[in-house]
Amino acid sequence: MSLSLQQRGNVFLVVAACLLAVGICLPFSGHDLQRSTQIVMSLGAVLYGLSAGSGERLLDRPSTYGLMAIIGLGVISSVLAHQPLWALTEVALFVGCGAIAVAFALLRRQGGEPMDRALILIVLLLCLVKSLQYLWAAASAFTSGNDVLNLDHLLSGFSNKRFYGQFQTFTLALLALPLLLANVTRAMRAGVFALLCVWWLIAISGGTRGTWLGLAVAAGVLTVLGPWGRRWVAWQLAALCGGLVLYWLLFVGLAGYLGIEVGSGAGDRLTTSLSGRGPIWLQAWHMIEERPWLGFGPMHFADIANEIAAHPHQAVLQWASEWGVPSALCVAVLAWRAGWATCRIVRARALSEAGEDLLRLCLFAALVGTLVQSMVDGVIVMPNSQVWLALVVGWLMALHVGRTPLDSGLKWAGAAWQIAGVMAVGLMLFIAARDLPHTVQDQADYLRAGHDHLQPRFWAQGVIALPGQ
């Protein structure tokens, strides 16, 4: 017996939640596992999108043409690139993220407000599991008898603590939603606030300055968007203070009492240094100067070997150097149009207490914080961050009030998008089947060749430059 549309949506949501949990909650999780779960989620999203037609379009005509231009320019740039297959894989990754965003948008539009509650429940459970893992690791460290406690060792599930920080930028913004809702019990509110305090403790001890910067800018934006935005800021500031108190009690007071030296503390991150980003930003700029129109090809920053990173840790420089300046301008215009449209709705409904409007506020805060962080970090590169960015964008698309009937003149675009999704997932599955059996050996060979660390891009060892290049 075939499943109904609502049942297929529920299946996709459960599968997506399980994949998110596997990607970040397993102690041995990391970049390659998260990329693998992203590919599987892209497959599920494409299949769900094929079966869940909609009488409403998700994008207006200018956005549709802009998306087509981005993909078209990406394909042309890929064909002309030094390694076309890797470049096309990056384009496929972009389409796969788009498929995930569309799937979440269709899921929310067809499921309504119950899907909002399901989303927040998923966020709460994921953050609760990660918080318990962190507190357990801290308790184990204090009782181990060691004289030194490295705070970085308390973080698990991510290859790098900055990737953990990117995940926190999304979830810190969303965790405040239950604190804003009127129908939440006092006990539930206290529990969520305690979780938010611990989540801020982890963000402080993790030392990801991009998270601090992104949420600070998001707080500044929400402050001028009405009383509910200011209430969101107030809750975040209160939880931040709670996190600071917990940090002092654990890693200053208790550690000092036990005679334990704390390494990689938050104070060590209170600097204005670029942490090695200067040379890779300069490399990206030189690439733009050399090939401004079509770039070197998607993913091809990783085709020019350097000793720092396989991506420039800056979204605009990365896109312009790899996809070309015209493509980067298309992305910037689409992002501005979408952001401004959402900002206008948030401002127009500044006094609304409806759960949908408060969720939109939190999603917008997550989006602003993430976009700011992408200016100094690889948010658009890391698989878990790409999935969460797609989720936030898709949910905002579903909540957008400017819905219009499906334009018959754009039906061909919908069919083309479905074909592109199938081809993109097929290519990513091929790359995964080709590479995953020997990724561990490839990483060992890379490190044995004299490199002191892995440089993530598509895989954890993301440098695609050929030997001797």
Tally of separate domains: 1
Give the ordered list of helices and strands: HHHHHEHHHHHEHHHHHHH
Total of DSSP H or I helical runs spanning 4+ residues: 17
Q: Outline the biggest β-sheet.
A: 2 strands, parallel
The tally of beta strands, per DSSP, is 2
Distance between the termini: 56 Å
**What form results from the Cα inertia axes?**
globular
Q: Residue share in helices?
A: 55-70%
What does it look like?
The chain is mainly alpha-helical and 469 residues long. Helix content is 69%, strand content 1%. The protein has a two-stranded parallel ribbon with strand order 1-2. The radius of gyration is 22 Å and the shape is globular. The mean pLDDT is 93.
Quick tags:
469 residues, mainly alpha, single chain, 2 strands
Topology:
Blueprint (H helix, E strand, L loop, with lengths): L4 H21 L5 H21 L9 H19 L4 H28 L1 H30 L5 E3 L10 H15 L1 H4 L5 H21 L2 H15 L3 H32 L2 E3 L13 H14 L24 H9 L1 H24 L6 H19 L9 H17 L11 H25 L3 H10 L21
Parallel strand pairs: 1-2
Helix pairs in contact: 1-2, 1-4, 1-5, 2-4, 2-16, 3-4, 3-13, 4-15, 4-16, 5-8, 6-8, 6-9, 6-14, 6-15, 8-10, 9-10, 9-14, 11-12, 12-13, 13-14, 14-15
TL;DR?
This protein is mainly alpha-helical. The chain is built from 17 helices and two strands.
